[in-house]
Amino acid sequence: MPHQRGFTYLWLLFAVAGMGLLLAAASEVWETVARREKEAELLFVGGQFARAIAAYHDRSPGAAKQYPARLEDLVEDTRFPAPQRHLRKLYRDPMTQGAEWGLVKAGGRIVGVHSLGASKPLRQHFTGLLAAFNGAERYDQWVFGPEVAEAEAAAQTTAAGTPAISAATPPPVESPEREGHPCDAPYLAELRQCQSAGAGWTAAQLHRCNVAAAARNAACRQGG
User: Fold this and answer.
1) Looking at the domain assignment, is residue 70 inside a domain?
2) Pick the residue with more confidence: 47 or 22?
3) Tens-digit pLDDT profile for residues 153-170
4) CA diameter of the chain
5) Which of 43-57, 66-80, 83-97, 209-223 has the least mean pLDDT?
6) N or C: which end of the chain has fewer CB within 10 A?
7) Which residues constitute the domain of residue 199?
8) Average pLDDT score over residue span 90-115
9) How far apart are CA 44 and CA 42, in angstroms?
10) Is there a contact between 109 and 69 (Cβ–Cβ < 8 Å)?
11) pLDDT tens track for 138-157
12) Residue 6 falls within a domain, yes or no?
């Protein structure tokens, strides 16, 4: 009987240990799934901010085009007799769950936003306009700004200046600034140079290249 009780005790120990391993594995899987969902949300929210910043600039009344001084200006643009909304609401940072965002500025104006998350992204491979995110070491290196919308508009414009948009692609915001702007061609070329050279760069160097390109584009559009 003592031998049998000892065997039962060992079996229980192994069973508890096995259940602990299974629970730990399940927890790790759940955390990974949750992180991927937050990353997808960050990409969506970042895209909303990028389009809103571009719309704020492109719809500026008068000849002087400006980027917003505050994120709140995207929700309520008071430059018009009837305030306009370029963004439905101020989204929270999915990675920190906070209301604060990192801001990329040029001339005191906001030209991009980024998460304040310091963790390494699970997703490391992007194509197209998000290729600058490849190899990022931290979420705060995913910068969302009008360069996404502007590069998309420039890429969809033929050499003759006629937009080539498929039925599956929503048309860009109608604005004389969005098509054929003198700043678009050099800006898109600079983004491509960043991506080409980025193969031999660190993620931080690629990030700085894209931010610098965005700042120069903002200054160009402001007549700087």
Assistant:
1) yes
2) 47
3) 444 443 334 333 322 223
4) 94
5) 209-223
6) N
7) 45-221
8) 91
9) 5
10) yes
11) 998 898 987 644 444 444 44
12) no
Write down how long the chain is: 224
Beta bridge partners of 103: 113
Distance spanning both ends of the chain, measured CA to CA: 90
On whether residue 100 sits in a domain, the answer given is: yes
| Whether the Cβ atoms of residue 92 and residue 49 lie closer than 8 Å to each other | no
Residue 78 lies in a domain: yes
The backbone region for 161, taken as left when phi is positive above 0, alpha when psi lies in -120 to 50, beta otherwise, is left
CA 58 to chain CA centroid, nearest Å: 20
At residue 219's C-alpha, the angle toward residues 151 and 54, to 5°, is 40
Q: How many domains would you assign to the chain?
A: 1
> Which pTM was predicted?
0.59
CA–CA distance, 154 with 192 (Å, rounded to integer): 12
pLDDT digits (tens, 9 = 90+) for 180-193: 457 766 776 777 67
DSSP-assigned letters across all residues of 19-87: HHHHHHHHHHHHHHHHHHHHHHHHHHHHHHHHHHHHHHHHT-SSS-----SSTHHHH-BTTSSS-B-SS
